[in-house]
Design goal:
- By secondary structure, the protein is an alpha/beta fold.
- It folds into two domains: 200 residues, Rossmann fold (3-Layer(aba) Sandwich), CATH 3.40.50.170; 105 residues, Methionyl-tRNA Fmet Formyltransferase, Chain A, domain 2, CATH 3.10.25.10.
- 26% of the residues lie in helices and 28% in strands.
- The strands form four sheets. The chain has a seven-stranded mixed beta sheet with strand order 5-2-1-6-7-9-10. Strands 12, 13, 14, 15, 16, 17 and 18 form a seven-stranded antiparallel beta sheet that branches.
- A hairpin with a 6-residue loop joins strand 16 and strand 17.
- 39% of the residues are buried.
């Protein structure tokens, strides 16, 4: 396979998976762009992105501009002398001057079946919506938000117990392989990308912490989707006795007829059964108190006994 000279732009682990495969395939990467280091953890120390860490391990040149909308950024990219640019969960918008700079254009790895879930949080939104499948698209970037034509796409089923974390890992690996196949297509002059259909467009807006507040007045299936969608971050939140609690795992159940939303029906080593809407309930099996770790319900109850009749309420209440 002919090697491609490309600039890579990405920030989190999803992007690092693709960068690793590009390095392994022997593609020439004169420049890697990633977001500036951010404060994180209890000490709020500056932490490098997953992409920066990986790039430096491979001896690649890394730049961390705060914007691409200036002449310095354009000069930096032009001097890289690349044929194309690959973007994966980068976090900065590319202006037209950069989109049109590369002879083979700019490719984006997007974790959805476009045009469904254009935008920042396609994995979370697919889970929250109860989609039965999702996938990855390799798209040629345009000025619009994820509007460009698609070179390759692949579908994956969303399994009943999938979380954003498990789905992320499958899609990251799939996206990296589709990217390599697309680069081969470009080198071999394979068919042009296919425009996205005008029907079925949805937008995956960025996740906010308030999105992760559990709504016990919803059906248990919907509450369960919230729990899965916000694992591993930011965690589905609720409140018990005025103290915030995160719910990490559970499963829908029955037996809540006549019970108020959020009411604890039973609590033992098998789980905490909590009433939801329309007689449905959610059996909680993994929880976390402030300052603690994720715990199986058996361990959780040893440090926080819960009696039937107590109530979980929304964290914002």
């Amino acid at each position: 396979m002919t090697r491609v000279r490309l600039v890579f732009a990405g920030t989190p682990r999803f992007a690092a998976v693709a960068l690793q495969r590009l390095v392994e395939a022997g593609h020439e990467i004169p420049l890697v762009l990633t977001q500036p280091d951010r404060p994180a953890g209890r000490g709020m120390k500056l932490v490098a992105s997953d992409v920066k860490t990986l790039a430096l391990e491979h001896g690649l040149v890394v730049a961390q501009p705060s914007t691409l909308r200036n002449s310095d950024a354009e000069t930096l990219l032009r001097e890289a002398g690349a044929d194309l640019m690959v973007v994966a969960a980068y976090g900065l918008l590319l202006p037209l001057a950069i989109l049109s700079m590369f002879p083979r254009g700019c490719l984006n790895i997007h974790a959805s079946l476009l045009p469904r879930w254009r935008g920042a949080a396609p994995i979370h939104r697919a889970l929250l919506a109860g989609d039965s499948e999702t996938g990855v698209c390799i798209m040629r970037m345009e000025e619009g938000l994820d509007t460009g034509p698609v070179y390759r796409r692949a579908r994956v089923p969303i399994l009943p117990e999938d979380t954003t974390g498990t789905l992320h890992d499958r899609l990251a690996a799939l996206g990296a392989e589709l990217l390599l196949e697309t680069l081969t297509d470009l080198q071999e002059g394979s068919p042009q990308p296919v425009p996205q259909p005008h029907e079925g467009i949805t937008y995956a807006r960025k996740i906010r912490r308030e999105d992760a507040v559990l709504d016990w007045a919803a059906n248990a299936d919907i509450v369960h989707r919230q729990v899965r969608a916000f694992d591993p971050s930011p965690g589905a939140g609720t409140t018990l006795r005025g103290e915030p609690v995160k719910i990490w795992a559970g499963h829908p159940a029955s037996g809540a007829l006549g019970r108020a939303p959020g009411e604890v029906i039973s609590a033992d080593s098998d789980g905490i059964l909590v009433a939801c809407a329309a007689g449905t309930a959610l059996m909680l099996t993994e929880l976390q108190r402030p300052g603690g770790r994720r715990q199986h319900v058996r361990t959780f109850l040893q440090g926080c006994a819960i009696a039937p009749g107590e109530r979980f309420v929304p964290a914002s209440a």
